[in-house]
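User: Here's a structure from my thesis project, written as C-alpha cells. My advisor, Dr. K., wants to see whether a designed sequence matches the one we expressed. Can you design one independently, without my sequence as a hint?
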C-alpha cells in the first residue's frame, strides 16, 4: 500500500518527538555520570558528541538485567519500564540544537554483549580487557549503554502526539504530495496559514516550535502584532541566540484585530528582515480575507475524530486501534468538543482502554455543554442588544464595526466622562483659595496647592481650544506631564479635575493593572491596549498611576529578570513616542517615587514636564477646605467658639503634705551670708 502524505508527515513528526526524548535522556545520563559530552565545531558539522564515561565501566557488570536496575537507579527512575522495541540511534544534530547543550550522538550498533564478551551467560569476567583499567568490566561500550538508556525512555506526551497528528492531517488533507507542499515554501518569507479548530492548539504548537519538536530547529517566535507571543512564554534575550527567527500570528488575536491594523502590521513584517510568517488559527469560523486570501500556503483539518483518538492511544499507551474503534462504537463516543487539555487529563499511563475512553467521553460531553451555554449567552446578549433604541440594522452595523476592538475592561482602563459645565462653573466664577459656589464642579481652576501643575493645565486648556480651531499644531503643545509627591497630595484628584476642565474623557489605568497577568506577552498587550483605546477615544486624557512600578533598565545581573523589566520600559517608550505623534492623546503619569523611573521616560517628547507636588501649606489648606465647604464656610466660621477668658493657674500640688515654698523675691536661692559647704 502506497504511503500517503499524512502517513509520511506523521512518521516524521513522531520521530522528532522520540529524537528529542532521547537527547533529553542522554543529558540526564551525562548528569548521572554514565556519559560524558564534548562540544565539537567544524565547517560542516557542529554539535556535542557523547562518549562512555569511565565511571560506567566500573558500575556496570555486563549482565543486562542487573545493569538495567543500575541505570534506573542512577537516572532516578523508580523501576525499569516495560522494554520497548528500539532501532539503533544515529543522530547528527544541526548547529541550532547544539546551542542548547545537547547534541550530536553517533552510534553504529546497539546490540547487547554476546556470550563471548561475558564468558558465560549471566556473569561477567572481570579484569583488563581492551586496554581497560583493572576492576572495570570488559566490553562495556557506548552502544550497550545507549540501548540500556533507551529502555528508560518516558512515554510520549499525549498533547505532543495529538498536535503532531493534527499537523500531519492538516498537511495531508490540504496537499496531495510533497512537491505541492514544498513549492509554496521556497520563497525567503512564505506566509503559511495553519487552521486546526481545536482549543489550546495555538499555545501548544507555539511551545513545540520553540522546543524543536515540529521543525528541524528551535524557533525564536516573534509576534507580528507585537502582543502576546504564540507560546505564551517569556524568554531571555540570550536564549534566542542562534535560534532561527519565525514570525507568528494567533488566530484569536487576528479575530480581535481591526483589518486596518492587521494590514499595517503585516506590511511592517514583510518590509523588515525577510522571515517566514506562520499564522496558527484554532477558531471555528474563517478569518478575515486579509489573511485567508493572501497566505501562500493554507493548511487545515477538521479537528479531532475517532480515527485520530485511536491512533493517539496506540502511540501513547499501546492500545491497538481496532480495539479502540470497537469500544468507541459501543459507547457511541463523539470526540467533537474535545480540547488538548482534555487529552492531557484522560490519556495517562497504566489506564485501560475502557477507562481512558470513558474519561474522554465525559470530558467531551462537558465541553459540548459549556459551548452550548456560551452560545446561548451570546445569543441572549444579541437579543438584549437588539431590543435597545434604534433600528435593528443600525445596531447590527454598529456591532460589526465594534467587533475586535479592545474594551476598557480588557486592558484595565476606567473611563470617566467629564461632567457637563453648569452656570457658574469654570474659571470665571472664582480663583483658587476663594470659596466657590456649592454647585461648582471639581476643576483645575478651583484647586489649590498645585502650583506649576495648575498653570500647565490652564495653558493646556487654552492650547486645546486653539488646536480644535486649527490654529495650533498638536506637536506645538505640551501634552505630557509627570506628577510626583507623597501619598495623599491629590495626584488622582488633579487628573479628575483636568477631565472636567478640558471636557474630555479621562482614561485611568495603572502599572499595577498592567502587571497583573505576569506573563510578558499579556502585560505588553495590556500596555498597548491602553494606548490604543486612548487613540480611539481621542481627544482624551490617559492617566497612568504607580508609574514607578515599571522601574528602570538595569545592568546585567543587578535585578532578577532584567530583560523582563527592560522589555516593559522599552515598550512604554515606544508607546509614548507613538502617542506623541498621534493627535488627541494627553498623557499624565503619577508616582510617589520619581527616582525609580527610568530617565529615558522623562526626556523630550515623553513625560517631559515634571511637577513635584509638596504637602499643602497653610494657604493651600485654606483653599482646600474652602473648596470642600463651599457656601458652608461662612456658617462654619460663625459657629466657631469665642475665645475663653484666661483662667488662674491651679495651685501647685503639696509636697509631703506641706505646701511648696513660694518664692517672693528675685534673690537667688542659697544666697545667705557666709560660706556654703556642699
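Assistant: Designed independently from the structure alone:
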Amino acid at each position: 500500500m502506497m504511503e500517503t502524505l499524512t502517513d509520511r508527515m506523521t512518521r516524521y513528526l513522531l520521530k522528532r518527538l522520540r529524537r528529542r526524548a532521547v537527547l533529553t535522556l542522554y543529558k540526564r545520563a551525562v548528569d548521572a555520570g554514565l556519559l560524558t559530552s564534548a562540544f565539537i565545531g567544524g565547517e560542516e558539522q557542529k554539535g556535542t558528541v557523547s562518549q562512555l564515561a569511565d565511571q560506567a565501566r566500573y558500575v556496570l557488570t555486563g549482565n543486562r538485567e542487573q545493569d538495567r536496575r543500575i541505570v534506573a537507579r542512577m537516572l532516578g527512575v523508580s523501576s525499569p519500564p516495560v522494554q520497548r522495541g528500539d532501532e539503533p540511534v544515529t543522530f547528527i544534530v544541526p548547529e541550532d540544537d547544539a546551542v542548547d547543550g545537547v547534541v550530536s550522538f553517533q552510534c553504529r550498533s546497539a546490540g547487547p554483549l554476546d556470550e563471548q564478551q561475558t564468558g558465560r551467560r549471566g556473569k561477567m569476567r572481570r579484569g583488563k580487557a581492551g586496554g581497560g583499567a583493572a576492576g572495570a568490566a570488559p566490553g562495556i561500550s557506548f552502544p550497550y549503554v545507549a540501548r540500556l538508556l533507551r529502555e528508560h525512555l518516558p512515554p510520549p506526551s499525549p498533547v505532543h502526539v495529538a498536535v503532531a497528528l493534527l499537523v500531519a492531517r492538516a498537511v495531508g488533507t490540504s496537499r496531495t504530495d510533497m512537491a505541492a507542499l514544498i513549492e509554496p515554501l521556497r520563497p525567503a518569507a512564505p506566509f503559511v496559514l495553519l487552521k486546526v479548530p481545536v482549543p489550546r492548539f495555538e499555545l501548544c504548537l507555539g511551545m513545540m516550535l520553540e522546543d524543536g519538536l515540529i521543525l528541524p530547529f528551535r524557533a525564536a517566535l516573534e509576534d507580528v502584532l507585537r502582543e502576546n507571543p504564540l507560546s505564551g512564554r517569556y524568554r531571555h534575550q540570550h536564549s534566542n541566540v542562534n535560534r532561527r527567527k519565525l514570525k507568528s500570528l494567533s488566530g484569536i488575536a487576528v479575530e480581535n484585530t481591526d483589518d486596518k491594523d492587521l494590514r499595517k502590521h503585516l506590511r511592517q513584517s514583510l518590509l523588515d528582515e525577510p522571515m517566514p510568517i506562520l499564522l496558527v488559527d484554532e477558531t471555528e469560523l474563517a478569518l478575515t480575507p486579509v489573511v485567508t486570501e493572501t497566505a501562500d500556503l493554507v493548511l487545515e483539518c477538521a479537528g479531532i475524530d475517532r480515527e485520530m483518538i485511536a491512533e493517539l492511544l496506540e502511540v501513547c499507551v499501546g492500545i491497538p486501534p481496532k480495539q479502540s474503534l470497537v469500544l468507541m462504537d459501543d459507547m457511541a463516543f463523539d470526540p467533537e468538543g474535545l480540547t488538548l487539555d482534555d487529552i492531557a487529563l484522560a490519556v495517562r499511563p497504566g489506564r485501560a482502554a475502557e477507562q481512558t475512553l470513558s474519561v474522554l467521553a465525559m470530558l467531551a460531553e462537558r465541553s459540548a455543554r459549556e459551548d452550548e451555554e456560551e452560545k446561548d449567552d451570546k445569543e441572549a446578549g444579541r437579543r438584549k442588544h437588539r431590543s435597545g433604541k434604534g433600528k435593528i440594522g443600525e445596531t447590527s452595523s454598529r456591532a460589526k464595526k465594534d467587533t475586535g476592538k479592545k474594551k476598557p475592561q480588557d486592558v484595565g482602563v476606567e473611563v470617566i466622562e467629564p461632567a457637563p459645565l453648569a452656570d457658574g462653573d469654570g474659571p470665571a466664577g472664582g480663583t483658587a483659595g476663594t470659596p466657590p459656589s456649592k454647585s461648582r464642579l471639581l476643576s483645575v481652576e478651583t484647586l489649590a496647592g498645585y502650583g506649576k501643575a495648575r498653570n500647565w493645565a490652564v495653558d493646556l486648556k487654552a492650547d486645546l481650544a486653539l488646536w480644535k480651531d486649527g490654529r495650533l499644531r498638536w506637536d506645538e503643545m505640551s501634552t505630557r506631564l509627570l506628577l510626583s509627591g507623597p501619598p495623599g497630595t491629590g495626584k488622582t484628584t488633579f487628573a479628575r479635575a483636568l477631565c472636567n476642565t478640558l471636557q474630555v474623557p479621562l482614561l485611568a489605568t495603572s502599572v499595577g493593572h498592567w502587571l497583573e497577568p505576569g506573563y510578558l506577552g499579556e502585560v505588553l498587550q495590556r500596555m498597548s491596549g491602553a494606548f490604543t483605546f486612548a487613540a480611539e477615544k481621542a481627544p482624551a486624557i490617559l492617566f497612568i498611576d504607580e508609574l514607578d512600578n515599571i522601574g528602570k533598565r538595569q545592568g546585567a545581573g543587578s535585578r532578577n529578570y532584567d530583560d523582563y523589566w527592560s522589555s516593559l520600559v522599552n515598550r512604554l517608550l515606544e508607546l509614548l513616542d507613538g502617542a506623541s505623534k498621534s493627535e488627541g492623546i494627553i498623557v499624565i503619569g503619577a508616582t510617589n517615587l520619581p527616582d525609580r523611573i527610568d530617565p529615558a521616560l522623562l526626556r523630550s517628547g515623553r513625560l517631559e514636564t515634571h511637577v513635584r507636588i509638596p504637602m499643602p501649606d497653610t494657604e493651600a489648606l485654606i483653599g482646600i477646605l474652602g473648596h470642600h465647604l463651599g457656601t458652608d464656610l461662612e456658617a462654619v466660621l460663625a459657629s466657631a467658639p469665642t475665645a475663653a477668658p484666661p483662667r488662674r493657674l491651679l495651685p501647685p500640688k503639696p509636697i509631703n503634705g506641706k505646701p511648696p515654698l513660694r518664692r517672693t523675691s528675685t534673690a537667688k536661692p542659697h544666697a545667705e551670708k557666709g560660706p556654703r559647704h556642699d
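When you compare it with your expressed construct, this may help: The mean pLDDT is 76.
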